[in-house]
Amino acid sequence: xxxxxxxxxxxxxxxENGTTIFQAARQMGIDIPALCYMKLDNLGVENxxxxxxxxxxxxxxxxxxxxxxxxxxxxxxxxxxHTMRVINARRTVLELILSxxxxxxxxxxxxxxxxxxxxxARLGIREIHSVENAAVSTYKKDTSPSLKRDMDKCVMCxxxxxxxxxxxxxxxxxxxxxxxxxxxxxxxxxxxVDSNCTxxxxxxAVCPTGALTEVDxxxxxxxxxxxxxxxxxxxxxxAVRAAxxxxxxxxxxxxxxxxxxxxxxRLGFDEVFDTDFAADLTIMEEGSELxxxxxxxxxxxxxxxxxxxxxxxxxxxxxFEHNYPDMLDVPSSAKSPxxxxxxxxxxxxxxxxGVDRKDLxxxxxxxxxxxxxxxxxxxxxxxxxxDVDYSISTRELASLIKSANIDFLSLPDEDFDAxxxxxxGAAVIFGATGGVIEAAVRTAYELxxxxxxxxxxxxxxxxxEGIRHATIxxxxxxxxxxxxxxxxxxxxxxxxxxxxxxNFHAIxxxxxxxxxxxxxxxxxxxxxxxxxxxxxxxxYREDAGKALRKSHENPYIIKLxxxxxxxxxxxxxxxxxxxxxxDKHD
Amino acid sequence: xxxxxxxxxxxxxxxxxxxxxHNSPGELINVLHKTQGHFGYLPEEVQREIARCLHIPVAKxxxxxxxxxxxxxxxxxxxxxxVCMGTACYVRGAEGVLEEIKKELKIDVGGVTxxxxxxxxxxxxxxxxxxxxxxxxxxxxxxxxxxKQIKGILAQYE
Amino acid sequence: MANYKMSLLCCGGTGxxxxxxxxIVERLREEIAAAGMDNDVQVVVTGCFGFCEQxxxxxxxxxxxxxxxxxxxxxxEIVKEHVVKGRKVTRLLYEDPDTQKHISDSKHMGFYQKxxxxxxxxxxxxxxxxxxxxxxxxxxxxxxxxxxxxxxxAIETVKKSGLRGRGGGGFPTGLKWEIASKSPGKEKYVxxxxxxxxxxxxxxxSILESDPNSVIEAMAIxxxxxGASKGLVYIRAEYPLAVKRLQIAMKQARDYGLLxxxxxxxxxxxxxEIRYGAGAFVCGEETALIHSMEGKRGEPTxxxxxxxxxxxxxxxxxVNNVETFANIPVIFxxxxxxxxxxxxxKSKGTKVFAxxxxxxxxxxxxxxxxxTLREVIYDIGGGIKGGKEFKAVQTGGPSGxxxxxxxxxxxxxxxxxxxxxxxxGSGGMIVMDEDDCMVSVAKFYLQFTxxxxxxxxxxxxxxxxxxxxxxxxxxxxxxxxxxxxxxxxLSKVIKxxxxxxxxxxSPNPVLSTIDNFxxxxxxxxVDKRCPAHKCRALRVYAIDPDRCKGCTACARACPAGAIxxxxxxxxxxxTEKCIRCGACLEKCKFNAVTVQ
Amino acid sequence: MSKIKSLDxxxxxxxxxxxxxxxxxxxxxxxxxxxxxxxxxxxxxxxGARAVMNSIIDRVEREKLPVIVTQGGCMGxxxxxPTIEVRRPGEDPVVFxxxxxxxxxxxxxxxxxxxxxxxxxxxxxxxxxxxxx
Lengths: 586, 158, 596, 133
Hints:
The complex is a heterotetramer. Chain A is α/β, with parallel strands linked by helices.
């Protein structure tokens, strides 16, 4: 690629042709402030509406200021990022944005993590020139099981719209109205629950302000923990341990499994279990289902639907219920690990300890916001009592720990409780895109061939590319595997299948970029996708360090089948661990 | 806004309009024009049906409908009054004319009289600047208006 | 019925009427009757000649003698000398300001060269629904000629003509075509922007309604030049007649093989589709327009990439407005040198203006670039309505600014208007007189911009709203001098930072009125006074005790009970209670109510 | 309608159309026709041009007058709408402004039929591209 030379702030720099001023400045250590701009490298996500005008710079010979995020460098360009004109413009524009923004920072859920707040601090805004009775744009507030919308705080960065449309292809959100009242909203500014929102929460993950936040369940959990009549147990999803440390200032990618368990115990949970246990269980059911369908298919059974699609991701389940109602019998009927855990906890485990399910409170800690919605689905309740009572995000767990006077960094490493705390490496990798299918392959291979795998790492299934495929040799049988993360890629893959472009036997789909490690309940990445990559590395590190790395080798899983379920796909397993899907097509 | 249910005939009509434009999402604005021409306005259910036919999210349809001032989700009155607020009309007293209509009908811009007789809107230049200030009642243009004429003009409409 | 041998045309325009033209007509008729010639000579009252500074005007036909500054007492001499004896009255003849010579035949008067119709050449002359009439006036000959040469030659011709875009910014048209032609891509588009949104400008509508074929022909020429086989006209849905006539013209052109496949046997294919706007001013901006044509919200995007590289459906697209296209065929018919000989150094050709507001001859005019505002307003526009005093002319619509007396002799072209803090825009020219409050005018434009802002970028979405709020505050007498400073700073920042042309120019009405009418702002802020008496909140009503007859009509009409007084005694207005509705003023039959 | 296949064909057609219009406009034979063009753009129509045009057509048909009535576009005289242009054979066209039905009848009575000008003539105040050398 050609290189070009330009001057930024009196220093010459050489960049690749096509580089924006913003990127070029970064390369030479000049950090131009920006608000709407967001780029997730490696994930193909870019939001560049050029709308906030905070990143403007002075380009010599140009009449007006240039948005550095979307102005491409040209040879010989002379750029100034810090002149009186630029400073005045930036501050004035930011004041304008603040003039139409609520000033309730102290009680805002985004307090301390808000990019707008940071920007105001960084630019040293001390007062906002205001007109008496200046208009502010206000909108209906909306709360769904997962997400809260308070669009009075919207700055029209359009990141949520980009995520919902360009990345996820859901299309629940769109810019609506125009001018001063323009905002991002669902059709007719209706409630999200009435829209085709999948609750993937990627809008929340990227929102720079408090406009889009998760529903906060921490209060309910404190109440349950303080209630002596309740037995409160917790399960933690694999991706949480790879990210929780970030909330306490640790480097992204630091594994904090032991500290997390210790913290949960100090919070007062009666048992600290692991969703990974249920992930192993999921593999047993889903892997068996795959083998069952594959076997019948190979025998020529025309009624068999292939490929089998994973069903761990609740946003993905919502997505196909809304968009592919004709394919409801294609995904695996296996419940997600969260729900399998709840079902087992409130049956097998409750019986074991002799507690009525109504007195057993199951809390899940998830990297995900759709899980809040998932645990409220009617089919996951028995007589109105949910299998999982509350789901909280990684961020909410961090705030619980902080509010409970726990010094996280000085905690010792502790282990999960038995029996629902034991897991294999296969379960851990559920947290990253490709992990579920890799875990399934490890088990299915051995169950199908009866042979021991000589290599456990299937690197061909890993990575951050949006759509990946690989063929795995099952001792002479070629199993074609597809993987997609983000719902937009899922749609491409499914449409490709419909069009006959692919011939897959099994497909893994995760709604969030990078899989659950990039989930909407994780600590905010603030547009830095290296964070997601670091979490992914941590996940595979944890797997590699485990003694047991295949789900069917988990002794507690084996025991669960022996004591309670019989065998995979048994009637009891079907009753407790499988579900069905609904046509939600509008 | 009241929710309305579309009957089969109405749904077929929408499908027909969309098909006329090859169900192409790029033709959304043409589809909306034609549909509004048929129904008089674009209520929620109509937008949902258009989204279905064109295979686009209904949020997108709504986003477009709320962007363009020509599209409305409110049914209009039997007679629709449009006051030109172009500059030529403004400097020749359109504001006074508008105030008078508001006072006379006791509705605001964008409103409909309770009896459904008149709806009031502003529009940009109709290009009859020589007649400024100008208003339209349905298709008829009234030019060189003075506020005191308003009462008499409105009284002509049933 | 008599068959008149001679007619005396006497201007009955407002300006001349003020100078006793009615008396002149009477006197002329009396003199003709006295001479016994009323069966041979008629006196006719005409519309405005537009030459009001030299009025009243009397024109004699058939010899086209043009008398200026005629007074009623001149009637006798005109009849006795000219009508009876055939000797022209030299002292009343128009004197050429350059040569100081008297000019007797109006056809040689410079005045008649003030307007030159290029874009409007056929408007009014042909039936727009009959392509034959267009062809009879050299229609499609330019296209035929172009098709015989190479696209490069044609682009060179347009470049040589110096034509610049007539829609606003004034980008050189030939250069635009060249960029689009050089953009790689098999599929390209020609777009005609007919989404005329500037309130008070309607030349594009007029051209499409009156001469649609000129636009069709030009789009085909452009298509040939840049390598496009498809054209799109993006037109306001509020222009049903223009749409209808365009459709008729397109059909007739197709029937003649002037659109469609193998145009004029040349092998070149080109056809046009119509897309409708839906009421969004910002769609005049070309990237917004393109998104609108794609069925999306008409939000502009950052340029580059320019549409010439990535436009409609991501393909190279050339966007020009109606008036720009209407000039194209003439450039090929008369030659680029001819076109470039008209206008100023950097602005060639003519510009159509929609003259409106407080001016006598509201209408569409077309003048060579370089014509002065004075010529436009007084010579063509017939001066200010009601003989009031000229205050300002707003050009360029919401993106433009107000020009004042000091700009009257500035030649109008792109660069001069920009230098004066306004812009050419689409060519709206709204004339204002002493009764117009410039703060209110700025507020009016800001209200428009606030309504029409797409909301995408923060400076335009929020900044213009704040500008409007401050202006509103000032018109209500609540402004401070700090507000004025902030108004200026905010305006500059919006200009500097907004995403698209709409936002970048939206503060122009504020800045230009502050620059040119600073005292008027100060009067509102410091003296709490609106010099034009336009701002309702600043009006002070009073009753002149000498004129008041004590009829009580005002007191009865006052909705606030602010008027006190006994029957048959002078009444008084309590300014504290007064809500400034003006009801008393309307009701008073004795002109006793005054407004300050 | 047949397609025009070349520049030559276009020019032949133009010459034919031009002379047809010329005959219509400038002929001195007894059946000479007067051409009346009503400005029928939006502003004209808004001001009542359609009613004027209809009344002229009615009169012409009723009395079988040697007149062709056509519609034209905008002449730019917005302040004087409705406007009509009358072209008597061999003479320069004359534009009348502020034409209502009564005025139209007066114009027919006096100018169209007898060449007698009536009040309300709008002076031409521009040059055309043909005139500009």
